[in-house]
Amino acid sequence: MDYIKFQKRDAWILLTIPLNNEGTDLQGVIGRADAINKLIPSDEEIEGAINRFLKTGIIKYENNNFILMNEYTQIIKNIYDEHKIIFDVWGELEFFLMNKEWPLLNADLHYKLAKDESRIAYQNYSKWFWKTFKEISKKDKNKKKITAYNRRCTACIGLVKINCTEVML
């Protein structure tokens, strides 16, 4: 039997997939990755991780959405419940992925980004982010001054569990 070997950065990409039955599209992956790590994943990081998840049955790709399979949703929920801080969750997911033998279940599945797909998704995310940032900034005008970091977390709080101090809604 063939096995898949995960890479350390795969846990970061897995964190971007919501724990629901709807999943997320590429723009959501990019936005959540930015919210978590203040970085945008490369095409190679996205394609590599998504392919490993598909081939091991951790996710499915349906209607342009990456959807976590039910059996892994509960495992990841348990990790979130145990480790409230996002970087602790990331570390536990990394350990979970890297320290298990993952059989190749779906050898025929392959995810490939179309030309400029990630660039367009990033541009759409960026437009959404700055629009949201401006809306929050207007609301914050009459409140005490908060840092751009906290505004950023506030803008993304609906996307991913983030444990930040002084986040103002």
Structure characterization notes:
The chain is mainly α. Helix content is 54%, strand content 7%. The chain contains 7 helices and 4 strands; from the N terminus they run βαααββααβαα. A hairpin with a 2-residue loop joins strand 2 (59-62) and strand 3 (65-68). Helix 4 packs across helix 5. It is globular. Mean pLDDT is 86; it is low at 148-169.
Outline the fold blueprint:
Blueprint: E1 3-4, H1 10-15, H2 26-37, H3 43-56, E2 59-62, E3 65-68, H4 70-82, H5 86-98, E4 102-103, H6 117-140, H7 148-156
Antiparallel strand pairs: 1-4, 2-3
Helix pairs in contact: 2-6, 4-5, 6-7
How large is the count of helical segments?
7
Question: Over the alpha carbons, how many angstroms does the gyration radius reach?
Answer: 17 Å
Count of individual beta strands:
4
Proportion of residues in extended strands:
5-15%
Main beta-sheet strand count, sense and barrel state: 2 strands, antiparallel
Strand numbers in spatial order across the main sheet: 1-4
Helix and strand content put the structural class at: mainly alpha
- Helical residue percent band: 40-55%
SSE arrangement, N to C: EHHHEEHHEHH
Report low-confidence residues grouped into runs of 5 or more. 148-169
The average pLDDT score comes to: 86
The dominant shape is: globular
Terminal CA distance reads: 51 Å
Question: Which labels suit this protein?
Answer:
169 residues, mainly alpha, two-stranded antiparallel ribbon, 7 helices, globular, disordered C terminus
